[in-house]
Design brief:
Subunit structure: Homodimer.
CATH architecture of the largest domain: 3-Layer(aba) Sandwich
CATH superfamily of the largest domain: Isopropylmalate Dehydrogenase
Family: Belongs to the PdxA family.
Pathway: Cofactor biosynthesis; pyridoxine 5'-phosphate biosynthesis; pyridoxine 5'-phosphate from D-erythrose 4-phosphate: step 4/5
Radius of gyration: 20 Å
Enzyme class: oxidoreductase
Binding site for a divalent metal cation: 160, 205, 260
Strand content: 15-25%
Number of helices: 10
Largest sheet: 12 strands, mixed
Shape: globular
Length: 328
């Protein structure tokens, strides 16, 4: 039986989401079936699209035409200007995609960028972002954000918090849970039976034996020793400034980092346009382009769909791997 298509949410309709959805369809053709959930009025003028009633119909749509599962919004969109009346429907589209994937009508979810302030102002959105909302819809308490490109996968233990708060937020439980979820995700969705995990230190030179900070000795090493004793292949804590060159990257499958920029600077340096944001620990597959709504260029016809294309491809590959693991 053919794999169901991927559900692509519309995201913020005033951003570049509608444009890159069309560009992705043009680039991928019918080799990777997906459908867009949103209001057709928000697509760029002249877009060739076909309305569908159910996801499976997307598989039969001609390659140059975007399959659209319609979700009417309150009004048309103005590129670059988020409208409060759109917020509730942006949220509803995400929930609808989750429902479809949980029903087995979609293989995975790929989410176009949202504008969190617009959702909060327009609909009282109570979540910090996509990830936390999806965790709530999926009924899980803890998920992990991974950024991935062909040459690197990174996972930050702490994410969108001030740097000054990182030492207090970096607990043994948080580190251990992050590693466990990452390990399971690499096995289930990437087909790696024994993932090789590299863990960065928090401090310069990974603390240099306590001379530049004690967190490696008191927190990180005990967690890593405990997980290694269970059979996990883990190295570290490693100095973050020496673990991202090509020779070092060849020695591991994922880098666990202690804070946001420690993880995101290397991957965005290596592959700024093609990085993918994905969420591990959900009961379904979710990927997303690693960029925002780009209001400043929305509607100008210059948006780059490289990251969305990579996100759709990764969702497709992950769903194939998860399906194979389920059959084994």
């Amino acid at each position: 039986m053919a794999q169901p298509p991927i559900a692509l949410t519309c995201g913020e309709p005033a951003g570049i989401g509608p444009e890159i959805a069309v560009l992705a369809r043009e680039a991928l053709g019918d080799d990777l079936p997906f459908f867009w959930i949103g209001d057709p009025r928000h697509l760029p003028a002249g877009t060739k699209f076909q309305l569908i009633d159910r996801p499976q119909q997307a598989i039969g749509v001609a390659a140059g035409t975007l399959p659209v599962l319609p979700h009417p919004f309150a009004s048309p969109a103005t590129p670059g200007t988020a409208l409060p009346e759109h917020a509730a429907d942006v949220i509803a589209v995400i929930a609808r995609a989750v429902d479809l994937v949980q029903q087995g009508q979609a293989a995975a979810i790929c989410t176009a960028p949202i504008h969190k302030k617009a959702l909060k102002d327009g609909a009282g959105f109570a979540f910090p972002g996509h990830t936390e909302f999806l965790a709530s819809l999926g009924g899980v308490d803890r998920v992990v954000m991974m950024l991935a490109c062909p040459d690197l996968r990174v996972v930050p233990v702490t994410i969108h918090i001030p740097l000054a708060q990182v030492p207090s937020a970096l607990t043994a439980d948080a580190l251990e849970e992050t590693i466990r979820i990452t390990h399971a995700g690499l096995q289930q969705d990437f087909g790696l039976p024994a993932p090789r995990i590299a863990v960065a230190g928090l401090n310069p030179h990974a603390g240099e034996g306590g001379a530049m900070g004690a967190e490696e000795l008191t927190l990180i090493i005990p967690v890593l020793d405990r997980l290694r004793a269970e059979g996990m292949h883990i190295v570290g804590p490693l100095p973050a400034d020496t673990m991202f060159h090509a020779k070092a990257r060849a020695q591991y499958d994922v880098a666990i980092c202690m804070y946001h920029d420690q993880a995101l600077i290397p991957i965005k340096t290596i592959d700024f346009a093609g990085g993918v944001n994905l969420t591990l620990g959900l009961p379904f597959i979710r990927t997303s382009p690693d960029h925002g709504t780009a209001f400043d260029i929305a509607g100008r016809g210059i948006a780059d769909a490289t990251s969305l294309i990579a996100a759709l491809r990764m969702a497709h590959d992950m769903s194939n791997t998860r399906g194979k693991n389920g059959r084994d």
